[in-house]
Please model this.
Amino acid sequence: MSSEKNIHPVASSAAPITSVHSVGSHLETQDHEVNLDAVLSNPLSIGEVGTTLTDAQKNFVLRRLHFDALTSFDQLPPECTFIFEKIEQMPTQEAIEILKDAIAEHENDVNVQDHDLELWRELVDYNSHGFHHAEDEKKSESSIDEKGNPVKVTAISYGDEAHSNDPSTGKPEIVDWDLQVRLEAVLIAYWSPYPEVRAVTRPFDDPTLPVETFRVYLIGIIWTGIGAVINQFFSERQPAITLNMSVVQVFLYPS
Model:
């Protein structure tokens, strides 16, 4: 996805995403819930989500989520739909607080990429005029408008597509502060700060999925009995033969 024609124009009359529950705070359980049946039965296109974002901003978000290689933007994955909705609902001040808490919590976390941690710090330290440091504002010829007021440099364009803030690109760059601070906060609050976790999970919970079912208890009891018999029977053997939980989970997966 390297050109503007790959993204459909934003539909100004797009209907709201009614299958995403929003209660106004990421701390509420309901704010993480999605009616998955509704999302999957009526997938939305790129033009129906993030109606307050430009096409270039949507492109940037998809690159950050690693969904920029989609063959079609007419039916977005539910993960994209959810993230776009939460980005629009996320207040900037709340996003900053989320990033501050994440920095304090993961300061010495070896599982968090240094690139991401540096990006969070850059976003939090970014001053109100859109510059990292005061000297940058003085050096920039475009930092003052016709009336002598500082210009906030936070507009992303298609020329900035290469700046996906992927660790492989090197130093993180801020090309759209307002979008990036909300995007990173949403990833932390609704998904995970760890890319490995985001790769194998979804950012939402479907409360309509049953947890306690007859199948769960039946299969669980049967395999608990099988494991107990095998472990006890071979416990006297040296070396002992055991059936651990990881093996049982592999056997249970097809069922």
